[in-house]
Specification:
This protein is mainly alpha-helical and 331 residues long. The chain starts with a strand and ends in a 5-residue tail after the last helix. The longest helix is centred in the last third of the chain and has 30 residues. The protein is built from 13 helices and five strands. The radius of gyration is 21 Å and the shape is globular. It has two domains: 212 residues, 3-Layer(aba) Sandwich (Rossmann fold); 95 residues, Tyrosyl-Transfer RNA Synthetase (Orthogonal Bundle), CATH 1.10.240.10. The strands form two sheets. It has a three-stranded parallel β-sheet. It binds tryptophanyl-5'AMP.
Length: 331
């Protein structure tokens, strides 16, 4: 049976981009594949959280995963640092990852721009750690959003390089997965690029946001001064609001506002009010579940322990085989 794996950094609450980019697909896949879903807490160290935040964030994200529909009985749900074999595989893969290709990686260049005072080696080798996450369970499919496409390409390169170097077919070459469709990119509310936790206040809608917070964020979303020509293409900020509507609203609702835009009769206030209500309707059951789960630390502990045990069974087996392929042998 094919193995599916995906993960999310524990740097903050989950937002609609995480949900539609990764979690939603994973929830479908967990029914029929051998699935691993983890919280990338080693990765989150690149931004130097305090120890209290480090733990609190992992707890929060675990509760949010569960509330969003990940089932610990069907999938293996674990915390990355509970599988320390990941760190060893990362070390081994680092020996075949080259400075040039790591420096050329788009996400690295972006980080250098955003945090010039903290360009640490963990940032440079971020894609290698991600490859270790994926390869440690010999995964085939990786449900992720569009922003992770290049990282997946690098994972394939590292897998192929390992196989060639040791003349083996050991690692499968995993692919980004979205049921045969293009990978998803959910836009933020600031009129520009994607929804992201580090894109600034008001850009992202979090699954745990209270209805009032959601309404405020959506009402403040960037728009334009309105269409002036019939059938004019929506500008980027308006196209972004339509994309969000496509994700959370009924198709007829989206069609109505698109038509209003085409006829130049659209009222952005109405569009935002409707979008806000549809987001609230969509996230409310998840938010309530998050709060319920957070109030049950015993359950969270049980889930984390169970996941760690299952993940280590698979991870330890891979590491043993990899060590033997590389030439680490017992005397
Ligand atoms: P992270 O934590 O930034 O995002 C987690 C998942 O959410 C998706 N995503 C989006 N999808 C669509 N639109 C958006 N606006 C949006 N924002 C985020 C991401 O594509 C991702 O699928 N490096 C990863 C974490 C990771 C990982 C892995 C993922 C570590 N190891 C191994 C898969 C496999 C990251 O930072 O994702």
């Amino acid at each position: 049976m094919e193995t599916v794996l995906s993960g999310i950094r524990s740097t903050g609450n989950l937002h609609l981009g995480n949900y539609f980019g990764a979690i939603r697909n994973f929830v479908k896949l967990q029914e029929s594949y051998n699935c691993y879903f983890f919280i990338a807490d080693y990765h989150s160290l690149t931004t130097h959280p305090t120890p209290a935040d480090q733990h609190g964030n992992v707890r929060q994200v675990l509760a949010e995963y569960l509330a969003a529909g990940l089932d610990p009985e069907k999938a293996t749900l674990y915390v990355q640092s509970d599988l320390p074999e990941t760190a060893e595989l990362y070390l081994l893969l680092n020996m075949n990852a080259y400075l040039g290709e790591l420096e050329r990686c788009t996400s690295f260049k972006e980080k250098v721009r955003k945090q010039p005072n903290n360009v640490n080696a963990g940032l440079l080798t971020y894609p290698v750690l991600m490859a270790a996450d994926i390869l440690i369970h010999k995964s085939h499919k990786v449900p992720v959003g569009k922003d992770q496409e290049q990282h997946l390409e690098m994972t394939r390169t590292f897998a192929r390089r390992f196989n060639n170097l040791y003349n083996t077919e050991y690692f499968p070459e995993p692919s980004a997965f979205n049921f045969g469709e293009d990978l998803v990119k959910i836009p933020g509310l600031d009129g520009s690029g994607k929804m992201g936790k580090s894109e600034g206040e008001g850009n992202a809608i979090f699954l745990a946001d209270e209805p009032e917070v959601i309404r405020k964020k959506v009402m403040r979303a960037v728009t334009d001064s309105g269409p002036t020509d019939l059938n004019e293409e929506p500008s980027q900020p308006i196209a972004n609001l339509f994309s969000l509507m496509k994700a959370v609203s009924e198709p007829e609702t989206l069609a109505f506002f698109e038509e209003e835009h085409a006829k130049c009769t659209i009222r952005y206030g109405d569009l935002k009010k409707q979008l806000a209500e549809d987001v609230v309707t969509f996230t409310s059951p998840i938010r309530e579940k998050i709060n319920e789960i957070l109030a049950d630390p015993d359950y969270l502990r049980k889930v984390a322990l169970m996941g760690a045990e299952k993940a280590r069974e698979s991870g330890a087996k891979t590491l043993k085989e990899v060590r033997s392929i590389i030439g680490f042998r017992a005397f």
